[in-house]
Design goal:
The complex is a heterodimer of chains A (about 350) and B (about 120).
Chain A (H helix, E strand, L loop, with lengths): L1 H18 L14 E8 L2 E8 L3 H19 L7 H6 L5 E3 L2 H16 L9 H7 L11 H8 L8 E2 L3 E3 L12 H15 L5 E5 L2 E5 L9 E6 L6 E7 L2 E7 L4 E4 L2 E4 L2 E2 L4 E2 L4 E8 L2 H26 L3 E6 L4 E4 L6 E3 L5 E4 L2
Parallel strand pairs in A: 17-19
Antiparallel strand pairs in A: 1-2, 2-6, 3-5, 4-5, 6-7, 7-10, 8-9, 9-18, 10-15, 11-12, 13-14, 15-16, 16-17
Chain B lengths: L2 H25 L5 E6 L2 E7 L5 E8 L2 E8 L2 E7 L5 H4 L9 E3 L4 E5 L6 E3 L1
Antiparallel strand pairs in B: 1-2, 1-7, 3-4, 4-5, 6-7
Classes of the chains: A alpha+beta (about 350), B alpha+beta (about 120).
Chain lengths: ~350, ~120
């Protein structure tokens, strides 16, 4: 009797110790097992984490897809379709259906946001040095003459052809990552993956309404003023994409210049927002929205949200206060003390 | 006190210790360990709590990066690249990796309580 008790006690203790270990052995076929892969593309570091039996095939399909799309849409790669369009000297260029579709989407968003999203700002961005890291402040005259070479409305799309006025340049930076995320998610699905999360240089996109353990995806929103995240959000399948001035900026003569330009002024947007996050179903839509919301500022963003009603948002204002929309009220949680305003329809 | 009672006490004691151990393992703060990788390949995995000071040199195509770990903080102190964005990133934060794109170098915390951080 005593021996049996002793033995079982020892066994229980052992079992408890081993089950609490850091890296438990997972049996094959466990839906919680995950695989990750990463790739450098579109000027960022991208990671894909997939769950389930088809995870490895899914991760390689997704990373290959992102590398492929970078080759199609890069501004600097001489082999890319965008490079060809930008160097056509005012003539028409034939592009793939995928590129034409993304361009059409970007032009629609240009109109929908009242010009806050503009894919033709590259020459201005370059003058500020945001494309190279050799930062400088261009004078008014230079900006005015560069702005003449911008304006997405001057881009004309035909049947899989693009015509760009000479001296103008297209840069898909504000939509390409989001769209690549959508296509990477499609590639994962095609391999049979039902559950995955992608981090494309800070753009978060998920596949599956929950993780394999049945819990929602827990996504942080970066704190523009401190360490870690300022809030968390529990979401299902979709995209959570943030734009903020902290991503790239420089300081000159005591003034901070941030990398998101207002297409109307050709200067860093000063809309009173520290960051804008768009939450919705589609990566490219949220990518385009986050930039637009940041440029528009709290008032303009609210107006756009009321007009379209098909996304949610988190705005972090420069005074530290938060504005969120009612659709995420239940799943949103502040992790820093701050004033919170919920917009309702 | 009978032998049986002593035995029960010992058993209870053992169970309590293992329970505390479990709680300790489960509650141990995440994000103490950092991973340095290049071109997707893991080069170093470092436990910050056991590394008061260390500098690490990493080479890529003849270019050099220097990473400094000091008092639990990690930063890039030197980089042979034109933009120096990695140095400007400052100290490593739990949610944002330090990335040197030209040299394909990434420093990040291993794990954490979130599935991802939009930034």
């Amino acid at each position: 009797m005593r021996k049996t008790t002793l033995l079982s006690t020892a066994l229980i203790c052992l079992a408890m110790l081993s089950s609490c270990g850091d890296k438990p052995e997972v049996p094959a076929g466990d839906p919680n097992t995950k695989s990750s892969g990463s790739v450098f593309a579109m000027d960022t570091y991208m990671t894909v984490t997939a769950y389930g039996d088809d995870r490895e095939a899914g991760v390689s399909a997704a990373t290959e897809e992102m590398t492929r799309l970078e080759k199609l849409w890069s501004v600097t790669d001489e082999q890319s379709e965008i490079y060809a369009v930008n160097h056509a000297g005012g003539g028409s260029t034939a592009v793939s259906g995928e590129t034409a579709e993304l361009l059409e989407f970007a032009l629609d968003m240009h109109e929908a946001t009242g010009g806050a999203l503009d894919i033709s700002l590259y020459p201005v961005l370059r003058a500020w040095g945001f494309t190279t890291g050799e930062y400088r402040v261009p004078d008014e005259e230079e900006i005015a003459s560069l702005l003449e070479k911008t304006g997405a409305e001057k881009i004309s799309l035909g049947d899989n052809t693009v015509t760009l006025p000479e001296d103008m340049e297209i840069d898909l930076g504000a939509v390409a990552k989001g769209c690549a995320g959508d296509k990477a998610v499609a590639a994962l699905k095609e391999q049979g993956v039902e559950c995955a999360i992608l981090d494309l240089g800070g753009n978060i996109q998920t596949l599956g309404e929950t993780k394999p353990d049945g819990t929602k995806w827990k996504i942080g929103i970066r704190d523009p003023y401190g360490e870690g995240s300022a809030a968390t959000l529990e979401t299902g399948e979709g995209a959570v994409i943030t734009s903020g001035g902290y991503e790239r900026y420089f300081e000159q003569d005591g003034k901070v210049y941030k990398h998101i330009l207002d297409p109307k002024t050709g200067r860093p947007a000063e809309s009173g927002l520290a960051s804008a996050t768009a939450i919705g179903d589609e990566g490219r839509y949220c990518d385009a929205l986050s930039t637009s919301l940041y440029v528009l500022g709290a008032e303009g963003a609210e107006e756009l949200w009321r007009k379209r009603g098909d996304f949610d948002m988190v705005l972090i204002c420069e005074d530290g206060s938060f504005v969120i929309t009612e659709g995420i009220e239940q799943s949103f949680q502040l992790t820093v003390p701050a004033e919170l305003k919920v917009l309702r329809k | 006190m009978t032998g049986r009672k002593i035995f029960i006490l010992i058993t209870a004691g053992l169970l309590a210790v293992s329970a505390v151990w479990c709680v300790y393992l489960a509650m141990r703060p995440a994000g103490e360990e950092i991973v340095i990788s290049q071109d997707g390949k893991e080069l170093y995995r470092i436990d910050l709590s056991r590394t008061p000071y260390r500098t690490i040199e990493v080479e890529y195509k003849g270019r050099k990066n220097v990473i400094e770990i000091k008092d639990g903080e990690v930063r890039m102190t030197h980089a042979d690249c034109p933009d120096h964005i990695c140095i400007e990133t400052g100290k490593l934060r739990p949610d944002t990796p330090i990335v040197c794109l030209p040299n394909r170098l990434v420093i990040e915390y291993a794990g954490g309580g979130l599935d991802g951080t939009a930034r």
